[in-house]
Automatic annotation (TrEMBL):
<comment type="similarity">
    <text>Belongs to the eIF-2B alpha/beta/delta subunits family.</text>
</comment>
<keyword id="KW-0396">Initiation factor</keyword>
<feature type="region of interest" description="Disordered">
    <location>
        <begin position="1"/>
        <end position="121"/>
    </location>
</feature>
<comment type="subunit">
    <text>Component of the translation initiation factor 2B (eIF2B) complex which is a heterodecamer of two sets of five different subunits: alpha, beta, gamma, delta and epsilon. Subunits alpha, beta and delta comprise a regulatory subcomplex and subunits epsilon and gamma comprise a catalytic subcomplex. Within the complex, the hexameric regulatory complex resides at the center, with the two heterodimeric catalytic subcomplexes bound on opposite sides.</text>
</comment>
<feature type="compositionally biased region" description="Low complexity">
    <location>
        <begin position="8"/>
        <end position="45"/>
    </location>
</feature>
<dbReference type="GO" id="GO:0005829">
    <property type="term" value="C:cytosol"/>
</dbReference>
<feature type="compositionally biased region" description="Basic and acidic residues">
    <location>
        <begin position="51"/>
        <end position="66"/>
    </location>
</feature>
<dbReference type="InterPro" id="IPR000649">
    <property type="entry name" value="IF-2B-related"/>
</dbReference>
<keyword id="KW-0648">Protein biosynthesis</keyword>
<dbReference type="InterPro" id="IPR037171">
    <property type="entry name" value="NagB/RpiA_transferase-like"/>
</dbReference>
<protein>
    <recommendedName>
        <fullName>Translation initiation factor eIF2B subunit delta</fullName>
    </recommendedName>
</protein>
<dbReference type="GO" id="GO:0003743">
    <property type="term" value="F:translation initiation factor activity"/>
</dbReference>
<dbReference type="InterPro" id="IPR042529">
    <property type="entry name" value="IF_2B-like_C"/>
</dbReference>
<dbReference type="Pfam" id="PF01008">
    <property type="entry name" value="IF-2B"/>
</dbReference>
<keyword id="KW-0963">Cytoplasm</keyword>
Amino acid sequence: MATEGSSAPAATPAAPSAAPTTPANTANPPATATAPAGTPQLTPAQLKAKAKAEKQARRAQAKEVKAAAAAAAPQPAPPGPDAKGGKGKGKQDAAQAGGTQPRTGTGPNLAHRPSMSGRRPSILVVEKDMRSSIPECFSHIPMAKRIPISQANKDVHPAVLVVGQQMATFAIKDSISRLGATLLAFRKVIEAYETPKGNSLSRHFVPHVLNPQIEYLTECRPMCFSMGNAIRLLKAKVNSFDIDTPEDEAKEGLLEMIDLFMNERITLAEFVISKNAAKQIYDGDIVLTYGRHRLVEKTFLKAKENGVDFAVSIIDDPYDRGGQELSKSLKEAGIPVYYSPNLGGLRHNVRRATNILLGAEAVFANGSVHAAAGTADVAVAATNTGKKVTALCETINFDRERVSVDALTYNEIDPEQHSSDGFRLLFDTTRDQYIAGVITEFESGTGNSPAQAILALLRKQEDPTIN
């Protein structure tokens, strides 16, 4: 038995160099019983630290596996009336109801959410670019688009968010309606504004509060001429305040300016223009107009109120169909109406008319009129027939800095009418030689001024002492 006695002492000195006990070490003790020659001996404290580190690593690995399994697991479908709570039944119902299925890849963000319609969602949803069908040579022309509220700047006021959505969807279309809605929204922005400590309203309000509102509205739809003019006046008013002006006093001054502006440049301007234009309608006249414009409609109703006996010939925009609403409004007022659904009968309608009134969205510095697409066709045909063409426009829509000779410089693409075959512009430009005069709210006789004289008219409006 000498062999047994010699083996026991040999195993005893090798014990201190053995690795910490693990399932692998326990299963194969001969491999760890003796340390290789030259291996440094670990102290009990080092062995304890090593075991603790391995334990923490195993826990972290277990958590990662558990999280990955939870992310990849399909969402159970809501129990239906036939569900009994069985596991196999629940999985089958979830598959039939189009429950969440993980996509091939890494990360939990690749899984789809359940479809509300019960259909399995597509693997990849790509939003169509609305401008992809527009040729490169027309890429400079802007187009209205609906900006999701979630993508708007956090500083945009809720009232401005609503106005932007209405503009993008053309719930409010003409320039003056957009101007009024914008000013009312800015009024709420001013009322809710509080100057941060260490700042003044005259230095902080425009760059940090007003500009984010303007940028959002411009992204929804390109800014019209009246909005641009009004915003410049509003910014000038803010900059006129002294740095020491109390916040309440400055805010009150801005609110008063907005109220006065809306009363004078919108409400009163509407009244004066319709009054002056109605004086140019006489008994027996057949007045031709295009589409539906707010100022033209008020002019017809004012002339009827004055007791003038006349008829109206309407050539409608085939896309907008505003002439149909104008026709109903005039018939209710007792005014005879001739209605044409498009420009097909343009020559006949122009020859029959004795007077032509057209609404304008803006007037450029060179006298060109910016109006709804189709207005230029009516004005050119009327001038070639020897008929007088008069445009109606508020002075807030005058642009004293820019000129235009075509419809491709300042325009918009109709978001509803564009495809790979073509697109439609919302406006056109009528050269000044086809416009006999522009009726504005500025009282100069009948308010009828040459289209080329808008700069002189604006200077005289700002300084009545100019002759």
